[in-house]
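Can't paste images in this forum, so I'm doing it all in text. The chain is below; anyone willing to post the predicted structure tokens underneath?
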Amino acid sequence: MTKLSELMGMLHIDCEDEREILGICDHSGHVKKDEIYVCWRVLEEKKQSYIKQALAKGAVVLCDKEKPGKDIYVCECVEDIAQALIELYYGDLCKDIFVAGVSGTNGKTSVTSYLSQMLHICGKEVMRIGTGQVTFLDQIIPISNTTPDCFELAQFFHTANMLGLDGVVMEVSSHAIDQNRINFIQYDIIIYTNITQDHLDYHLTKTHYRFTKFKLRRYLKTDGLIIYQKDLKEMRDFAYLYHGASLTIGMRDAHMVLENIQLSDHDAAFIFDHIPYHTHLLGMFNVYNIASVIAAGRRLNIEVSLMQKACEQIKAVAGRMEVLKGKGYHIWIDFAHTPDALLNLLQFAQSVKRRNIITIIGCGGDRDKTKRAFMADIARTYSDIAIFTSDNPRGEEIHEILYDMCTNAGEHVEIFENRSFAIKHAVKCARNSDIIIIAGKGNEDYQMIQHHYYPFSDRDIVKKRLCEEENH
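Text version of the structure:
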């Protein structure tokens, strides 16, 4: 515990309050008694209501610009108050644990899951922080962002240290990098999955998005390692920018080479750095994902024989190439919501298909509109039947999103505004050896329509339809 007077003193602020500070928070609605509420660079018209709410809860307020008063302190001499407070209050949160960060347009959730699973199977306990939740030991804590805000993130790191966990494995979003949420973190390992196109509604240009991702290299420990795919052309710029310790994986001219890759509709086998591996995960992208995890395991000095056994046991993430079986056909549920992810998914389906591919896809509202036509073209080109439908339209009208998707629509395209109807129709149309691909939402359990959340699960709709099919 740290006394308020000591903490403020380290910030060169006069304070005689000897109470013990129980935490730090930058959300007035979440702050608790005897915690510090950081009211930093907040819009003036909202600042007073936030401060009033925090004080009513018994919190101490720290502002950048405000008149000092009872339980209100002002600090104007620190540029990054979040990083300063976290380091002063918690100390070095990365010193006694290893930290692995995974960043990229696609594959972050899968790689963090596979790495966490492998480490667990090999006898190490880690905390996994990623899309939708934080998991450690037997606990699951929901979160709203891929990467939480800095103070929430610091509390999770503190918990990992207090529990004596071996490490933290986390997804790192471009938003988190750009908004300095990870400023207190130093990574032992950084894994780049890929960097294509996403979040242009926020970053505006591909260049800003890509180089924001590349900025993650600045958060590497002195003896840390960056792992990336040599086969990806978008990583060539990174090779010019970064001259520290890196390990490349790829089909050729890489530090660790992938060879003899054998893919099927139910597993994959490959040789990596002269060692054979087998996994029940599907697709070439998962071969790359597992290879990245193996490379990280080698860095952590895990025995090869243990990793070979672990690869056999690693399971797919819910909603990431999740396979459900119908009457003679298969249904794949996948989170693919970017052009690159959808292309990889459908190209793999083409390589293992025995009959028709039926693809269900939508595009999110209030997001990058430029990718809608690309997504639609990919679905139409690589599917025997492409079904366009809704996918979190948010504040936009569904028919407007579908109109953007149908710019180049041709034959074999069907349209359902209702996603549930789209899924039921696809199941009804499926025949022996067909593959139905439901892309975009993965394991999400909601649809966001006109900014309201409604319960919805692709998996639940599929299971209900299959049950009805079974009973007929």
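The mean pLDDT is 90. The CA atoms of residues 208 and 257 lie 31 Å apart.
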